[in-house]
Design brief:
about 1200 residues, 17-stranded mixed sheet, eight-stranded mixed sheet, phosphatidylinositol-4-phosphate phosphatase activity, SAC_dom, SAC domain-containing protein, membrane
């Protein structure tokens, strides 16, 4: 039901708000909130007799006390931004667009002008309203400030600041019909108490919440609001029938916690209750076909006691308590997460692993080790280092490393009946320093991956298809807008030049706004934060003294050093590794009226990099990469704003104007600028260096011009860095030189692994990210030709354990912690970038029993690998390799080195060091040490999409790339309860077989089955005998693996529901119960054709199938009789589950003619079944081909010999 406005009535003693079911009474004397029935006598007598209809409101937020006075906060304007879906209903979600305050004053001013009207106003009964009363009502409607000035002549500063929280940027939301504080999973679990973590007006409604009995009347007025972000997008996917398929509804909801809420520099780290700053729960919802699918992530400040305060330029990060003093509160924080979300708690830390952020990252890891909880997983990923050169696609490496954890965590699925199909168990917790840009990038990437998998489960696109562009774009925009909103709430102001990102051009209002922001952001960040913090505390009922910012000015040398570090960090992040930095400068954007450096210029022999920061130099806002040949002019002059010298760089992409700040760099050494003349000289030297570089590189003369006035207008579109981050797969940068991805000829969109298929092991390179200050010289590692191979290298490295600590520290900031990591319970993954020699040295230096895998590739040597005893390493090719350190497996590195030493120089050797020796002709069995898979596979969803288009084998090989040769697949994380051979009698229908493989392999993996598919094909001169081919498939499959279950499957039937388990119960199972060709009805009760499931015991007891049915017809009914004669009963799933689509095809009259004597044979089944079947099976095995997706068995069925035997038995025409 859409929103209706509520009428307000005022008397001398109370304010009444009329709702749909009840009335809210706000007493002006006691200042208490209470509820009345609509037919209550008090409401009728007081309002109708004495009240003034003061106006209408959208909703009441509650009551607040400020400086001894009480005010009612109410929503005067609200708009629908999204909807909750529940079964066949939808409920609007409102954004609070305007909040006003109404004083609760029992004084003569308000009552006085009411009593001046001799006739009590009663608008309901048509009585006239006096002039003064009308004036008061109009004031109420016109606006909060005017009305409050009329009544009190003053608006308290704190109240004004509280109203700013709501009105400056509308980011509060509520819903009448559903509690917005709850995620989808909590809602459908039946939780009916608001989640206090996100209940922003709880303090305002205390009178109602503290009531002994909360009835329906109270609930109408207890409407929780949340701060955060909510946005909805509806889209039709490409190539869908809009008349029959509803739109996919995407909703992103971010809920900001009330605990430790506040401004950035006043709220860092953890508190004594285990709450952290900037804690935000983000939920992505998918709604279609009546189903609701959601995935939750959280972000939050690093859970340590640390701060970042003062009027410093880039304030320092300070850890304020030792680990011994803070560990208890760290554990309390983890315990809260476990209670709220379950296990595992997957912590993703994105802080820099060098520089000023290193101590935070190291201390965070030390706390994880000290807590020693097996329910915690820790991933360290230096975002800036790993994505250096703007290679944001590297974030996908992190997501790939998270894949096993994401599978374990899962997601929430609600079916159209409102039942919980599956739950999310566990959470991904991501943080950087601010938990803003970097965090939003990673959360958006994780959300995209999970969403694509969910969409595949919903059947919106297939496993062989890329995600639709409309879905990719919608997700990118949702997360970009979410990042902006959360940044504004925590950092205090929005990013500059937002209209450029949204509209692609500058607006007049945007230019004016940026002028204000540039001049005031530094003041706002450090001065107004205290006022904002007081307003939040008052709103939330938090009693605390706000710490004052340090007044003293930062030491000049410290500020100069910070400027130098800013340039170096920017170069480290933006420049590719092979690009040489010629010069770097920290400057001031000409539009900024302060002297704080907010821009960095980096000059290389290829491009000029222009980076814009906010005025704290904490947040990278924009980046331009301009090839030198695209620079058209260099200008030096003054602007209309100041007499200072500026430099203007003009290119085909736009123009930018800069002046010097208070620090200059000389040979990368920061030096304080003493006066304006020195600043002007500095700008001229920058222009000269840019000119000289262009002259030498481009072999041409570049002139520096000196116009009288330099214009500061902007040209060209600049992308906000947060949105660039979010568009990982599609980002295009303004530079002419090829990117790393282009150099590797990777022009296709990145293939996204399906994170939600439980048994699929997707190949990926584990990523790496620890900053490497030094690399081991190549000459020191190689003394002979043989040493170019890993064999010689490992043997030499084994004697290097005594390297000094300085050298080991250069390998990794976490080197000293690795022995502790090895012994602790949490899963710890440190993604680290090194060349092979550095990796090998580090592994052997530390006695690294914690290496998950070491992958090496030497251009002049054969690739070798040291893997764990139970897991094949992923395959990699030439180029940069990565290493994942984890303590979840314990490979024997010494044993691996020994095996490598024993290998000859030119030999290859098996990297799979499994302890089991197998028959080379058999499939590899699963390891019995794995835990059993659950009886009910956790990732089943019910109806699934059926793909009827013929796929390419090579495309399927990329998707199902974890199968053993021959199409053998096993679960990766658990021991399968069923070993199932799929037997497909087959001839001349390869397109149908491809379609079957496409649909069936994915389903079998979801069902956590140990399986292989066998296509059994007769020679071309054989008449088709389906039953005999199934007998042959049964026998030949058993030669390759100890199967316990056999599914005999027609090639043209595709399953429509993944709950139709491909396993064998105690009774023989007929699986193809409802086929579309037959109107999804069972043709007759005794049918056993199409698809059937039989155990080895069943097959032996029934003597398999008959070998006598040459051509079409009869064999299924014969088998149905054998089931009965053997003492079994046919079992079936319900029609709603055992559904299949049949591929339409022409009849095969030549190769599979109708069997003319099928009825005669069926009449003799009772007599013949003991001897006709496996007991007299005869055939010649021609060939066995083990392809990547299936095994082909080619046979000669000895048709002539078999028909002669039938003739002897009295069936001459058979």
């Amino acid at each position: 039901m859409e929103k209706t406005r509520k009428k307000c009535f005022s008397t001398k003693s109370a304010l009444y708000v009329e709702g749909q079911y009840s009335v809210l009474k706000i007493c002006k004397k006691t200042k208490k909130l209470s509820t009345l029935a609509k037919d209550d006598r008090e409401f009728a007598s007081c309002v109708l007799a004495l009240g003034v209809e003061a106006g209408e409101v959208c909703d009441i937020l509650g009551k607040i006390e400020i400086e001894g006075h009480f005010y009612v906060l109410y929503v005067s304007e609200a708009s629908v931004v999204a909807r909750f879906y529940d079964k066949n209903e939808s409920f609007p979600i409102y954004r609070v667009d305007r909040v006003r305050a109404l004083p609760l004053i029992e004084d003569d001013q308000f009552s006085g002008f009411i009593t001046e009207n001799k006739t009590p106003p009663n608008s309901r009964q048509g009585h006239p309203v006096g002039n003064v009363a009308t004036q008061a009502a109009n004031k109420f409607k016109l606006g909060q400030k005017a009305f409050m000035k009329f009544v009190t002549n003053k608006i308290p500063d704190l109240l004004d600041e509280i109203l700013r929280l709501f009105n400056d940027v509308p980011d509060f939301y509520y819903c009448h019909e559903r509690d917005i504080t709850h995620s989808t999973q909590r809602h459908f679990e039946g939780v009916n108490v608001p989640d206090e973590r996100f209940f922003w007006n709880k303090n305002l409604l205390n009178d109602l919440l503290r009531s002994e009995f909360i009835d329906v009347r109270h609930r109408e007025w207890i409407i929780p609001i949340v701060q955060g972000f909510i946005q909805n997008k509806e889209l039709y996917l490409e190539d869908c029938d809009k008349s029959s398929i509803p739109p996919l509804c995407l909703t992103l909801i971010s809920r900001r916690s009330v605990h430790r809420a506040g401004a950035r520099y006043l709220r860092r780290g953890i508190d004594d209750d285990g709450y952290v700053a900037n804690f935000v729960e983000s939920e992505l919802l998918l709604n279609i076909f009546g189903h609701h699918v959601s995935f939750i992530q959280i972000r939050g400040s690093i859970p340590l006691f640390w701060s970042q305060q003062g009027l410093h330029y880039r304030p320092p990060l300070t850890i304020t308590r030792t680990m011994e003093d803070s560990l208890l509160y760290f554990e309390k924080h983890v315990h809260r997460l476990t209670n709220d979300y379950g296990n595992p708690i997957c912590m993703v830390n994105l802080v820099n692993q060098s520089g000023r952020e290193l101590k935070l990252g190291t201390s965070f890891l030390e706390h994880v080790i000290a807590q020693d909880s097996e329910n915690v997983e820790f991933f360290s990923f230096d975002f800036h280092h790993h994505c250096r050169g703007l290679n944001f696609d590297k974030v996908l490496d992190l997501v790939a490393a998270l894949e096993p954890s994401l599978k374990e965590i899962g997601f929430c699925w609600i079916d159209k009946m409102g039942e919980i199909v599956r739950k999310q168990k566990g959470i991904v917790r991501t943080n950087c320093v601010d938990c803003l840009d970097r965090t939003n990038v990673v959360q958006g990437s994780i959300s995209q991956m999970v969403c694509f998998g969910q969409a595949r489960r919903l059947g919106l696109f297939g496993p062989l298809n890329d995600p639709p562009d409309s879905l990719v774009s919608a997700l990118q925009l949702l997360w970009a807008d979410n990042g902006d909103s959360i940044s504004t709430q925590y950092a205090g102001t929005a990013a500059l030049k937002g209209d450029m990102t949204r509209y692609g051009e500058r607006k007049i209002t945007g230019i004016m706004k940026d002028g204000y922001n540039s001049a005031s952001r530094y003041y706002l960040s450090h001065m107004r934060d205290a006022r904002r913090q007081k307003a939040m505390n008052a709103l939330l009922g938090v009693e605390e003294e706000i710490p004052k910012q340090i007044d003293e000015i930062e030491d000049e040398s410290d500020e100069d050093a910070n400027v130098g570090r800013l340039v170096l960090e920017t170069a480290h992040f933006l420049l590719p590794e092979n690009e040489i930095l010629i010069g770097g400068w920290a400057l001031v954007d000409a539009r900024n009226s302060t002297s704080q450096c907010d821009s960095v210029l980096l000059l290389t022999r290829i491009s000029l990099y222009v980076a814009f920061y906010d005025d704290d130099a904490e947040k990278l806002l924009e980046v331009k990469i301009v090839p030198l040949e695209e620079i058209n002019a260099i200008e030096i002059g003054r602007t209309s704003r100041t007499s200072r010298i500026h430099v203007r760089v003009v290119s085909s992409q736009g123009s930018w104007v800069f002046r010097a700040g208070e620090t200059r760099l000389f040979s990368n050494v920061p030096i304080r600028i003493k006066n304006n003349d020195e600043a002007d000289e500095y700008i001229q030297s920058i222009a000269e260096q840019l000119k000289v570089t262009m002259d030498m590189v481009l072999n041409r003369t570049t002139e520096i011009t000196f116009p009288q006035r330099i214009t500061t207008g902007e040209e060209g579109a600049k992308k906000k860095i947060a949105q660039m981050f979010s568009m990982l797969g599609k980002v295009r940068f303004s530079k002419s030189q090829p990117t790393n991805a282009e150099k590797s000829n990777n022009n296709e969109r990145t293939k996204i692994p399906d994170l939600l298929t439980p048994d699929v092991e997707h190949e990926h390179r584990p990523s790496s990210v620890v900053f490497m200050d030094e690399q081991i010289p190549q000459a020191d590692m190689r003394t002979s030709e043989s040493d170019s191979h890993l064999v010689g290298l490992v043997s030499r490295l084994k004697g290097l354990r005594g390297v000094n600590s300085n050298q080991s520290q250069s390998l990794s900031p976490f080197t000293q912690l690795i022995p502790k990591i090895d012994k602790c319970k949490p899963k710890i993954v440190l993604l680290h970038a090194m060349n092979f020699r550095t990796r090998a040295l580090l592994a052997l230096l530390c006695g690294l029993a914690t290496v998950h895998w070491i992958i090496s590739y030497c251009p002049d040597a054969n690739p070798f690998a040291i893997s764990s005893d139970y897991e094949d390493p992923p395959q990699v090719g030439p180029g940069d390799e990565d290493l994942v350190f984890t303590n979840t497996m314990k490979p024997n590195v010494d044993r691996g080195a020994q095996l490598l030493d024993n290998a000859s120089e030119n030999s290859t050797f098996d990297a799979n060091l499994t302890a089991i020796v197998h028959n080379p002709n058999m499939f590899t069995p699963q390891l019995s040490s794995l835990p059993y898979c659950p009886p009910h596979p956790p990732n089943l969803v019910g109806p699934i999409r059926v793909y009827m288009d013929e796929p390419k084998i090579e495309d399927m090989e990329k998707i199902f790339n974890n199968l053993e040769k021959g199409g053998h697949g096993t679960p990766s994380k658990c021991f399968a309860r069923h070993r199932v051979a799929i037997i497909v009698p087959f001839r001349d229908r390869l397109p149908h077989l491809k379609i079957l493989l496409h649909n069936l392999i994915d389903l079998l993996q979801k069902q956590q089955i140990d399986f292989a598919i066998f296509a059994v094909e007769p020679l071309a001169n054989n008449t088709f005998n389906r039953a005999k081919l199934m007998n042959i498939g049964y026998v030949e499959a058993l030669r390759l693996y100890p199967w316990t279950c056999f599914i005999f499957h027609d090639v043209d039937l595709m399953p429509e529901d993944d709950r139709n388990l491909y396993s064998c119960p105690q009774q023989p199972r007929h699986m193809s119960v409802a086929i579309d060709k037959f109107g999804y009805s069972l043709p007759y009760r005794s049918i056993f054709g199409g698809i059937s499931g039989l155990t080895k015991e069943h097959m032996q007891k029934m003597n398999g199938f008959s070998n006598s049915y040459w051509g079409w017809g009869g064999e299924d009914d014969d088998m149905s009789s054998r089931v009965v004669y053997s003492g079994y009963k046919i079992s079936r799933y319900p029609k709603a589950i055992a559904r299949y689509k049949m591929i339409k095809h022409n009849e095969e009259k030549k190769s599979n003619p109708v069997n003319p004597c099928r009825h005669k044979l069926m009449a003799k089944t009772r007599i013949r079944w003991h001897k006709d079947g496996l007991a007299d099976l005869n055939y010649d095995l021609i060939q066995v081909d083990r392809y990547s997706l299936y095994t082909r068995i080619l046979v000669d069925m000895r048709e002539k010999e078999s028909r002669a035997q039938l003739a002897k038995e009295g069936f001459p025409r058979c």
